[in-house]
Design a protein that fits this description.
By secondary structure, this protein is of the alpha+beta class. It is about 40% helix and about 20% strand. It folds into three domains: about 1-155 and about 405-429, Porin chaperone SurA, peptide-binding domain (Triger factor/SurA peptide-binding fold), CATH 1.10.4030; about 175-275, Chitinase A, domain 3 (Roll), CATH 3.10.50; about 280-380, Chitinase A, domain 3 (Roll). It has 15 helices and eleven strands. A four-stranded antiparallel beta sheet has the order 4-3-6-5, covered by helices on one side. Strand 9 (about 355-360) and strand 10 (about 365-380) form a beta hairpin. The longest helix has 30 residues, at about 395-425.
Length: about 425
């Protein structure tokens, strides 16, 4: 992900997709900056200018991404860094081609369950030009290549490093959260209105108000309880939710999270540190049974009937007997490979439990999900230490080694960027 290549930024998710509707409104194409002075420099870095137009565009982009800082100040800092990174790339003979940039844009957009074209459309509605997004991604890719080329050979992880990490990170503590949820489905016809309502809900700070809104608007099976979820270890949440949730104080609500035909919001009710280490799930086995009719009364009644007739995933084969093979799917995936809407729905379930708040085919098909099992092999933050006389599993060792190497590479990169800043002639206007 491009944003990960810039260690100075940690966004609350990819929130621009949460703020703007995908459909139901005309696209406003950003106008080319023609006002006098828009292309005047606001800062020069060793003679390379950042224009007022670029600063305005980056500021708008950061506002849409809901960067956790003053957007105008952060935009200026980023653009200065981008010039320094580009100069370092040129000095090292490093370039990235259009195909690499396009792939980076796709990867960035995918964090919000979008494709590039959808992302560009959303940005345009917020007044951000495609080229601004493209250059934002290009800067991150260039810097990743620069730091890898310059420091990659200097980063190594020894056995002592691994043992020290296991000892210091596996401290037996964990984090669990108490959340409430609201998930509101939408159609192409009412998407703009639903997204506007979601934006309003994201400003709530009262748990009672959020609960009341959940009872009125949420389409999940938790609506009757005001959207209340039980205590969960943070590692049981889908990967896309973890950083969003951990950024909340009690009472705060996430920015609206776009899903497939729905938008989700989560409120932090409480958070606790525990003495027990958090489980880390490496694989989720689940089944999906497809029911025609979407969220119609008949489809929901059929889902409730299946829920009453089944206790485990194997029972669904009897339900699907005599129907096309495509009506039932069952498989095992890593948490990060599961679509966000399905992952969120599964995170509430214990093995044998079902949910039916996800749809497909533009809302025409209801998906009954059943949790089969979760594979747990290690504690959060580091692989489980090996028992005496044993060695850690190779994949766990490789994962921890990669984490250590990444942190070291980031440290080298940050130091190099500070050096470039200190040596550069930066003139601000």
């Amino acid at each position: 992900m491009t944003s990960q290549t810039n260690s100075k930024i940690t966004f609350r998710g990819i929130a621009l997709a949460l703020m703007l509707p995908l459909a139901g409104a005309s696209v406003v194409v950003p106008q080319i900056a023609t006002a006098q002075g828009m292309f005047d420099p606001v800062v020069k870095i060793d003679g390379a200018a950042v224009t007022r137009y670029e600063l305005d565009q980056r500021t708008k982009l950061l506002k849409l991404l809901r960067a956790p800082a003053d957007p105008a100040k952060l935009a200026r800092e980023q653009l200065i860094d981008d010039r320094l990174k580009a100069q370092a790339a040129a000095a090292n003979g490093i370039t990235v081609d259009d195909a690499q940039v396009r792939a980076g844009m796709e990867q960035f957009a995918s964090q919000g369950s979008l494709n590039v074209d959808q992302m560009i459309t959303l940005l345009a509605r917020g007044g951000v030009a495609e080229q601004t997004f493209r250059e934002f991604v290009r800067a991150g890719l260039l810097w990743r290549e620069v730091t890898q080329a310059r420091f990659g050979q200097r980063v190594s992880v020894s056995k002592e490093d691994l043992e020290f990490a296991r000892t210091t990170v596996s401290d037996g503590s964990g984090v669990r959260v108490l959340l409430s949820e609201i998930i509101i489905p939408y159609t192409p016809e009412n998407q703009a209105q639903v997204m506007e309502k979601a934006r309003q809900l994201s400003e709530l700070t009262s748990t009672a108000s959020f609960s009341a809104q959940a009872k009125q608007f949420s389409a999940t099976q938790t609506r009757d309880s005001g959207g209340h979820l039980p205590w969960q270890p943070v590692t049981q949440l889908p990967p896309i939710l973890r950083p969003l949730v951990l950024d909340l104080a009690p009472g705060e609500v996430t920015a609206p999270l776009p899903l497939n035909g729905a938008v989700a919001l989560f409120q932090m009710r409480d958070i606790q540190e525990t003495d027990a280490p958090d489980p880390v799930y490496t694989a989720i086995e689940y089944a999906a049974y497809y029911i025609p009719g979407g969220r119609s009364a008949d489809a929901l009644s059929r889902a409730a009937q299946i829920d009453a007739q089944t206790d485990r995933c194997d029972d669904l084969y009897a339900i699907a007997k005599g129907q096309p093979a495509t009506v039932l799917e069952r498989g095992t995936k890593a948490p990060g490979e599961i679509p966000n809407d399905i992952a969120i729905s599964l995170s509430r379930l214990d093995p044998g439990e079902v949910s039916y708040d996800v749809t497909r085919a533009d809302g025409q098909t209801l998906v009954l999900l059943m949790m089969c099992s979760r594979s747990q092999t290690q504690t959060a933050g580091a692989p489980s230490p090996a028992a005496e006389g044993e060695t850690a599993a190779p994949d766990e060792t490789a994962q921890l080694s990669a984490q250590i190497a990444t942190r070291r590479l980031e440290s080298f990169a940050n130091g190099y960027l500070e050096q470039l800043r200190s040596e550069a002639r930066i003139i601000e206007y």
